[in-house]
Hints:
Blueprint (H helix, E strand, L loop, with lengths): L1 H9 L1 H12 L11 H17 L4 E5 L6 E6 L7 E7 L19 E3 L2 E3 L7 H16 L6 E7 L9 H7 L8 E4 L11 E6 L1 E10 L5 E2 H4 L6 H10 L22 H9 L4 H8 L12 H6 L3 E9 L9 E2 L2 E10 L5 H14 L6 E10 L2 E2 L5 H14 L4 E5 L4 H10 L3 E3 L15 E3 H20 L3
Parallel strand pairs: 3-6, 3-7, 7-17, 8-16
Antiparallel strand pairs: 1-2, 2-6, 4-5, 5-18, 8-15, 9-13, 9-14, 10-12, 11-13
Amino acid sequence: xxxxxxxxxxxxxxxxxxxxxxxxxxxxxxxxAHAPQVRQAASWLADNLRDIGIGSVEVIPTDGHPVVxxxxxxxxxxxxxxxxxxxDVQPPDPLELWDADPFEPxxxxxxxxxxxxxxxxxxxxxxVKAAEAVxxxxxxxxxxxxxxxxxxxxxxxxxxxxxxxxxxxxxxxVVLVSDTxxxxxxxxxxxxxxxxxxxxxxxxxxxxxxxxxxVYGGGVANPINALARMIADLHDDDHRVxxxxxxxxxxxxxxxxxxQYAALPFDEQAWKDEAGVTETxxxxxxxxxxxxxxxxxxxxNGIWGGYTGEGAKTVLPARASAKISxxxxxxxxxxxxxxxxxxxxxxxVPDTMTLTFTDLHGGHGVVVDTTAPAMQAAxxxxxxVFGQKPHFTREGGSIPVVADFKKILGxxxxxxxxxxxxxxxxxxxxxxxxxxxxxxxEASIRxxxxxxxQER
Length: 456
């Protein structure tokens, strides 16, 4: 391990330059026009995996974007770690808010700024370079498999089928993922819980066409007004969701978990400053930290209808639409919540309108046992890197494939992320601290060594 750590330090600058080359490929999975660049990013990664000495590397087609699969077998007696990541990125829009070309990486103030720097090329590449370091200095202490997909930002719609089809090839002891964040700068953490997701779109149709608001206003129901009322009524005064049965399966936070939340070094004022808000808004009885990771939510993510261009157009719209997402906690399921949302909206549609309800996608939440050998190995690795014990935390985001790994492959996942909430992922000027990039490589090397020594 010491030789591998020295190798990683000696080649740190080259690792960054290689990452920059990968970041220059605009692998935007949601935009069909970028499908060639998505395939290019997959091929680039496959070539890099071959270059570091992994003999079995494939770019496997799916009905969507390809999956990069690689395998390095050391011994039947060694544990197997399946490293998951994704090489696709979010669209960079709005381009005018970027300080530079989003696909021309820039180093500034110790950070690498580019689309995909933190989510997830930079974090996935940490494990590739950790593998290079251990292979260059003898061999890996664990069997390694890499599964890097190109559709995470598009819902990973084809990945469950891929997992089922290749279940035998993907056999492992644990999955290792770096697509989450540290609790705070310099404060190591391991996520043991993620929320699930239910995402829908609703449309209210009123008149058969847009109408002149002067001629028809006051005599015809307005779909925007009606939809706005329906959305406003989705929460009560305690900021609890009013959808019937929404909380039926919610597993509340235990006293021990609430004590763990209270012990976290959370700076609420700094959190509000980063978010650009002056007050928090939480479900009554829960802190901001608990509300953003341990409790279910419902939010309107977008709403539109009528005229939204420059200037004025006095129109009474024919329809109004909204996108709505729910973050789910363990025991809640996306199918059940989506069905309850459908019934709620159907029960509240005005007589003058019709409803179109569309289930867009969803995913299950997950909680991992923090005492498991792999979790303890990760804790040991992070403590060695940061000089302090990591916190076990729950995160508010969703990584649906983590639940799929458990359901389809029977594998738990170690979420050992090195991002920060302030990295502006999905936003202009996404960044990744180069210190964290190198810390992630070191932690990955140390994790392999510690996990190989754990009793299972």
